[in-house]
Amino acid sequence: MTPTHPSDTHHRGTGLAVIKVSGPDRQSFLQGQLTQDTLLITPAQPLLAGWPNAKGRLNFVAWLLSWQEALWLVLPAELVDTAVQRLRMYVLRAQVRVEAVPAAVTFGPPTSFAHIDETGISNCFYSENEYWFSPVADPERGLHIALNAVPAATADTAEWQRAIIEAGVPSVFAATREHFVPQMLNLDLLGAISFTKGCYIGQEIVARTQHLGRIKRRMYRFTAGAAAEPGAPVYAGGKAVGEVVNAVTVDGRCMLLAAVRIESLAERLSLDAAGEYLLRRQPLAYHVPDQLTD
User: Fold this and answer.
1) For residue range 5-44, what is the model confidence (pLDDT) as tens digits?
2) What are phi and psi of 162, to 5 degrees?
3) Of 17, 8, 55, 47, which is closest to residue 181 (Cα–Cα)?
4) What is residue 42's DSSP assignment?
C-alpha cells in the first residue's frame, strides 16, 4: 500500500494533531478524565469525547480512537502541547504514557485503502501506520492519520471546518478553552457524554447541569455576511448573548457554529453590537432545543 501524502489533491490539511495514550492502564485512566465511556471504544468505532476541567468547562473536544494497542486523541494542533502537559499531571501511579506523536492529519476520501477491503469496518480503515474514519457520516469524506508524516506547512482547514460545521460537531480552540460546559456544545446530543459510567473530572457539574435542567445555552448553526473567529461574541439588542464556536468563510459567506442563550434565539442576532452583521440560523442534522422547556 502506498500512503497518501498530505499534499495529495484529494486530501486537505485540517489543523489537527494527535495525542497517543498507551500503557496497560490507558482505558481506566481516560475513563476518569473524559466525558465519554471509554469501555465503548473499539478499533472500528471512534467516539467523540470532551475533557472538562474541575469546574466542568471543556479543555478540549476530541475524537477518541483505539489503534495499535493505544488510545488516540485527535484535536486541534494548537491545544496539543498544553493538553499533554495537563493530562500527565493526572497520571500519578497509573501505568500510562501520554505523548504527542508526529503525524499528518488530513481530510478526504480513503484513497490509501481503496483496495484493502478486509480492513474496512463501519467507515473505518486502518493499517500499521495509517488510520481513516468518517466523523461526519459521509463515506466519501473523513480524517486520514498518517504516522511519522510531516503536516503540510500551510494547512488548508476550510474544507474540514465546513464539514464539521455542517454536521454540527464542535471544536474547542485556544481562544475558547474552558469557556463551555459540554452541553453548551451539544455533546449530550452527539452521544459524547456518558451519564452512567461514574466519576471523571468535572462530572458532578456536568451531571447537575443535565439533571436540573440548567442548560441555558445551546450550539446552533448560522451563516453571516462577515467573517468570524472562535471566541467572538454574538449580540442581540447590543448585548453579548453568545459566542462563536467554529467558523469558516467559503465563497465570501461565513458559516459558523455559536453557543447562544436559548431565550435570545427569537431576537436579531449579529456579530456586532450595532446589529449590522446579522446571523441567519440554519438547520442542523440533529434536533437542538430552542426553548428552555424543551
Assistant:
1) 333 445 677 899 999 999 999 999 999 999 999 999 988 8
2) -60, -40
3) 55
4) B
Q: What is the pLDDT of residues 83-108, one digit of tens each?
A: 999 999 999 999 999 999 999 999 98
**What SS3 state is found at 166?**
helix
Give CA–CA dist 185/260, Å, rounded: 10
- Other beta carbons within 10 angstroms of residue 54's beta carbon come to 10
Strand arrangement, sheet containing 233-236:
269-270, 233-236, 239-250, 253-261, 217-224, 279-282
pTM for the whole structure = 0.91
Whole-number CA gyration radius for the chain: 19
Q: What percent of the chain has pLDDT over 70?
A: 89
The dihedral through the CA atoms of 175, 254, 170, 289 has a sign that is: positive
- Beta strands 253-261 and 269-270: pairing type? unpaired
Check: CB of residue 60 under 8 Å from CB of residue 79.
Answer: yes
